[in-house]
Amino acid sequence: MTKTPQTLTIAGSDSGGGAGIQADLKTFQELGVYGTSVITAVTAQNTTGVAAIYPMSAESVREQLTAIGSDFEISALKTGMLFDPEIIKETAAAIQQFGWNKLVVDPVMIAKGGASLLQQEAVEALKIHLLPLAFLVTPNIPEAQALTGIAITDSASRHLAAQRILSMGAESVVIKGGHGKDPKYAEDYFLHSSGESVLYRSSRIATMQTHGTGCTFAAAVAAQLAKGEELQNAICTAKEFIQAALRVPLNIGSGHGPTNHAAYKADLAVKRGVDSIEVFR
Ligand SMILES: Nc1ncnc2c1ncn2[C@@H]1O[C@H](COP(=O)(O)OP(=O)(O)O)[C@@H](O)[C@H]1O
Ligand SMILES: Cc1ncc(COP(=O)(O)OP(=O)(O)O)c(N)n1
User: 186 in ligand 1 pocket by Cβ < 6 Å?
Assistant: First the structure.
């Protein structure tokens, strides 16, 4: 009997349900994998912003990680909001202790409304302890700039930033383009330590319903990896998933609303050929 692939998200809770643990578990469910979770922080958050952050203690994070590691067979995992250096260290230690592979690190730093989801002193901890364990790192443009100190203004500086992130020990990186300036396209740039690069391009959707795009994208990659999909194809599926989720809005809340996690499976946009992803190798 084939078992459902088991996945893990290590991230913060978003009470509004659009990002964080909630987005990840919805994505896992939609893509047909079993989702487990370790909560690093509880945020009081809705579509208009983050009102408060309550980080979990390092001990409680360790206990959650141990509960998962001692019982589940995790085929792929992702990290999101890790908040402080202690939580990062516990996370890295558990990944090594339990031999978890196929780690997707979403280096979450700042929420759309401007709230800081990672302490300044945790950026170094992320680089030292977590990036060397990553199969894939998925920064958005501001996060890639913060990790590298390189201003991303064009494709050459984007490539340089990607190289710099790989030099921190990650096996591969995709710099997501949601924050890019191109009004026509949203481009995600992938670079592997072998030197292979891929550009994933979709049409840019004009919408306010973008809360949690990064979490959802990384969770979709992890889900596909757990099912055995090859990395570059998993990224393409994740891009299709987010394109569908943005294309068919839910119109929930008065601010940056959540994306529609059910749209991909419901075959509502991309899979009808309405909006396909272009891949440039
Ligand atoms: N308006 C948009 N139209 C199409 N794709 C988008 C849009 N905004 C973000 N994306 C896609 O969503 C994913 C997450 O990107 P991004 O928004 O940069 O991440 P984050 O949420 O971490 O800031 C990427 O695949 C990106 O290309
Ligand atoms: C609890 C929590 N985790 C992560 C985020 C940021 O998610 P992201 O996907 O980067 O989406 P936006 O903040 O850009 O909408 C969050 N807000 N809360």
Answer: yes
- CA distances for 105 relative to 95, 108, 253, angstroms: 12, 9, 28
**Model pLDDT for residues 24-63, shown as the tens digit of each residue:** 999 999 999 999 999 999 999 999 999 999 999 999 999 9
Q: Report residue 132's pLDDT band, with 50, 70 and 90 as the boundaries.
A: very high
In the annotation, is 180 catalytic? no
Is residue 204 lining ligand 1, measured as CB closer than 6 Å? yes
Strand partners, 14: 43
CA 139 to ligand 1 centroid distance, Å: 11
Start-to-end CA span in the chain (Å): 38
Taking the CA of residue 216 as reference, the ligand 2 atom at the shortest distance is: 9
Show the tokens assigned to 222.
Answer: 């992890």
Domains of the chain and any CATH numbers: 6-150+205-280 (3.40.1190.20)
DSSP 60-97: HHHHHHHHHHTT--EEEEEE---BSHHHHHHHHHHHHH
When pLDDT is averaged across residues 73-90 and rounded to a whole number, the result is 98
Distance from C-alpha of 27 to C-alpha of 141, rounded to nearest angstrom: 23
- 8-state DSSP, 277: P
Q: Which ligand places an atom closest to the C-alpha of 40?
A: 2
Task: Let me know if 120 is exposed, middle or buried by CB neighbors in 10 A (0-12, 13-18, 19+).
Answer: exposed
Identify the nearest ligand to the CA of 241 by its number.
1
pTM, two decimals, is: 0.97
For the stretch 221-230, pLDDT in tens is 999 999 999 9
Compute the chain's Rg from CA coordinates.
17
Give helix then strand counts, H and E, for the chain.
8, 10
